[in-house]
Every structure is written in structure tokens, then in C-alpha cells.
Write a structure and sequence with these properties.
This protein has 213 residues and is α+β, with helices and mostly antiparallel strands. It folds into 2 domains: 50 residues, no CATH class; 140 residues, Arc Repressor Mutant, subunit A (Orthogonal Bundle), CATH 1.10.10. 31% of the residues lie in helices and 22% in strands. The protein has 6 helices and 8 strands; from the N terminus they run βαββββαααααβββ. A hairpin with a 2-residue loop joins strand 2 and strand 3. The termini are far apart.
């Protein structure tokens, strides 16, 4: 008895191939006639298997590779990152993270999560720029930069409240690059209520702050 059917090269006939082949079955014997299609494979140590692709609406925005801004994750996902941050780690923060969290707390605790993340990223970008101190604490305590700093010393933030927890979470998220920098390249910002007349390229405004390169 003879039948023609499509079989997967690897699964049906044991071939080391990723093709879909047209086969002819005669009395239990399989004859490959032609291979009209190529199927994507994932190569592992033990052989190959068809690649499974999830529908677009099932891909998590926190793990998907984003091609453009239209695919950007929603603000709710940033809120989720803050929510699941381990509050107990606040007591174990290193000095650099604590300096960054303190800057976020005093400069932006009343801002949105995006606004707080933007302030954190300005501090980080300054430390990386070569134009400011190379440490986060050095950036935050640099004379004449942040008004909440007095004589080069940071005030003690009230670490038991919700706003501190949020600032600490944002500081870690920013350092780990867990969320895209909303003010890429910005090294300066000021409150929107003032007009210092800076002759610098403006990046954007987020909430009560305006950011510049």
C-alpha cells in the first residue's frame, strides 16, 4: 500500500535535517521524494527541534526585544518592578546605591516613577561622563549641585516610609538598567518652576523637572 505525506525530517525519518519533506510510504518503508520547505530550528547538544514562537500578545514586554517605541512596555510594568523589589534589601544597600536613593528621594520623591528614574539616570550619567566625579556619592555631594546637600554631607532620609522604599527601588532599577533611561544623555535638570536660562540642548520635561544635555 502506498501513501504520500508530509513528514518532519528529524522527527519522522531520523535525518539530521531541519526540512519538511514530502515522503512516500510503501509497506512500512519511507522514501523521501523532495524537501520543499525549511523549518527554523533551535540547536541543542542533543539535536534539533522546531522553534516554537509565541503569539505577539503572549510575549512579556519585560523580556521581549523591543524594535521601536511603539512596542515599549507600559508604565504599569515599571510600577510592577518597583512593587516586587525586595524591601529587605534596603537595609543591605551599598554606599553608592544609598547615595543615589537619597538623591532620588530628596529631588524627586513627589514625581512619577518615570520622573524619579530620570533623576537617578542623570546622576548615573554624570558619574560615567568623565566631566563629574566618577562615583555616585561624589556626584551627589559635589559642591553647588544639589540643594539638599549641606557642607558635602547627605541628610538622613526617613527610611521607614513608602517614599523611601520607592526611591531605593528606583535607584537599583536604574543601576541595573532594568528599565530604559527616559532622559538618555541628560546631565542636568532643574525644576520647571524656575528659569535659569541655561544655554543647553533640552532633552524633555517629565513632571516638575526639565532635563538637558
Amino acid at each position: 500500500m502506498r501513501h504520500s505525506l508530509l513528514v518532519a525530517g528529524v522527527a519522522a525519518v531520523g535525518l539530521l535535517s531541519s526540512t519538511l519533506a514530502l515522503a512516500e510510504v510503501t509497506d512500512g518503508s519511507v522514501t523521501i521524494l523532495k524537501a520543499p520547505l525549511e523549518a527554523p530550528v533551535v540547536v541543542a547538544d542533543q539535536g534539533a527541534a522546531p522553534l516554537t514562537v509565541e503569539p505577539d500578545n503572549q510575549i512579556s514586554p519585560t523580556t521581549a526585544q523591543l524594535d521601536d517605541e511603539s512596542d515599549a512596555p507600559t508604565a504599569a510594568t515599571l510600577a510592577e518592578l518597583v512593587r516586587v523589589w525586595d524591601v529587605d534589601s534596603a537595609d543591605e544597600m551599598d554606599t553608592e546605591t544609598r547615595c543615589l536613593a537619597t538623591a532620588v528621594f530628596y529631588e524627586a520623591r513627589s514625581e512619577s516613577l518615570a520622573g524619579q528614574l530620570a533623576v537617578a539616570n542623570v546622576v548615573i550619567e554624570r558619574a560615567r561622563s568623565g566631566r563629574f566625579p566618577s562615583s555616585l556619592c561624589g556626584v551627589v555631594t559635589q559642591p553647588g549641585q544639589f540643594s539638599f546637600v549641606r557642607a558635602g554631607r547627605l541628610p538622613v532620609a526617613p527610611t521607614s516610609g513608602h517614599q523611601w522604599r520607592t526611591a531605593a527601588a528606583i535607584a537599583e532599577i536604574a543601576q541595573e538598567d532594568s528599565w530604559a533611561n527616559p532622559v538618555e544623555g541628560a546631565l542636568y535638570f532643574h525644576a520647571a518652576r524656575v528659569s535659569p536660562g541655561w544655554n543647553r540642548p533640552r532633552v524633555t520635561r517629565i513632571g516638575g523637572h526639565i532635563f538637558y544635555r
